[in-house]
Design goal:
alpha+beta, Heat Shock Protein 90, 2 domains, 5-stranded mixed beta sheet, 7 strands
């Protein structure tokens, strides 16, 4: 059995309440002998502790299991009902064990009385209600603080992504190249220059708008990446190719904003590009609500510096959104990232 470290509140509650509980149980067992017979204090109270410690730890294990099974704030009802069953599985058996052990072995001449059962069960139920209410309130408060911290972290990530995106992914060097391209097109092909400027404005408009939001729909991300690809195509020509295969049923699904831009830019940054050996980027939907971004692996002779901030940012956002399934796969031929798509109703439950 894996050891479960008891929460501090439960540990301290046990340490401070057990002397009183032990005294009450011995009062039920021996009445006023508790105050007259020193043997009760020497033998019985330590024995109650010996029985109480494993009973308490079983209580900790059971509560931990219930909290793992129903961890969310909107699952409080199931969690409370589950913890209430500790009366059947831990508390009542513990009281019965104490009474029957004392009766069977005639510890300090004790003989079981039916009223002792009622008194013991009343004490057990009362103690359990008091402490379970306290522990559940502490758990809910802790989860609320955790949710607040996660929201704060999401806001911090949005700020960092805003900075990293504008500085690294669409940085002044990239903007300078785009303006050079635009300047060249104006003198050669004004119509093409107009199209290029239109796509560039779409890219920046999307970046400035969606960087402030946590998630975007698949439709929004695909529209953006199409505009972004046109800029790349104007710059690199046939050295970059983009293939899109998106099932329409996933149009309204969500994913972290700017995810596709980060992945496409990483692919361009870390691979060699040429007309004879183009970089091919495939973006397609797959079963089980997945969006896959894959490109052929054509490593540069001199590798570009990488902090892997983009991948780490995406992974962290999925973790905070509590959406499993983010996966990065790499071999000699391909680099692939699997993105879980989020249904709106899933997100509303977080």
């Amino acid at each position: 059995m894996k050891f479960v470290k008891p929460p501090k509140l439960e540990l301290y509650s046990f340490l401070f309440s057990m002397p009183l509980i032990s005294a009450i149980i011995n009062l039920i067992l021996f009445d006023d002998r508790l105050w007259k017979d020193y043997k009760v204090w020497i033998y019985s109270i330590p024995l109650i502790y010996m029985i109480g410690i494993p009973s308490w730890y079983l209580h900790v294990l059971y509560a931990n299991w219930i909290e793992q099974k129903y961890p969310e704030l909107n699952q409080s009802r199931q969690r409370v009902i589950g913890k209430a069953l500790v009366l059947l599985f831990v508390m009542i058996p513990s009281i019965l064990i104490i009474l029957f052990v004392y009766d069977h072995f005639h510890i300090l001449d004790y003989q079981l009385q039916i009223e002792d059962l009622y008194k013991g069960l009343f004490v057990g139920v009362g103690v359990n209600i008091i402490f379970e209410t306290l522990f559940e309130a502490d758990y809910v408060f802790s989860k609320m603080k955790q949710s607040a911290r996660e929201r704060e972290t999401m806001n911090e990530l949005a700020v960092h992504q805003d900075f990293d995106t504008l500085k690294n992914q669409v940085n002044p060097h990239f903007l300078f190249n785009c303006l050079n391209t635009l300047s060249s097109l104006i003198g050669v092909d004004k119509k093409r220059a107009e199209v290029f400027l239109n796509e560039l404005s779409k890219v920046y408009r999307y970046l400035l708008k969606n960087n402030e939001e946590g998630v975007s729909t698949v439709t929004q991300e695909i529209r953006f990446i199409e505009s972004y690809y046109k800029l790349l195509q104007t710059r690199y020509g046939d050295a970059v190719k983009l293939n899109l295969q998106i099932d329409k049923r996933y149009d309204s699904y969500l994913l972290p904003s700017l995810t596709l831009q980060l992945l496409v830019e990483n692919a361009v940054k870390h691979n060699s590009l040429s007309k004879n050996s183009p970089l091919v980027i495939d973006i397609f939907t797959a079963a089980a609500n997945k969006l896959v971004v894959s490109n052929n692996h054509q490593p540069l002779t001199v590798k570009a510096p990488s902090t892997k901030v983009g991948l780490k940012n995406i992974k962290t956002k999925y973790a905070l959104l509590k959406q499993p399934g983010f996966l990065v796969m790499e071999d000699d031929k391909n680099f692939t990232v699997v993105l879980p798509l989020i249904w709106n109703q899933q997100l509303s439950k977080i």
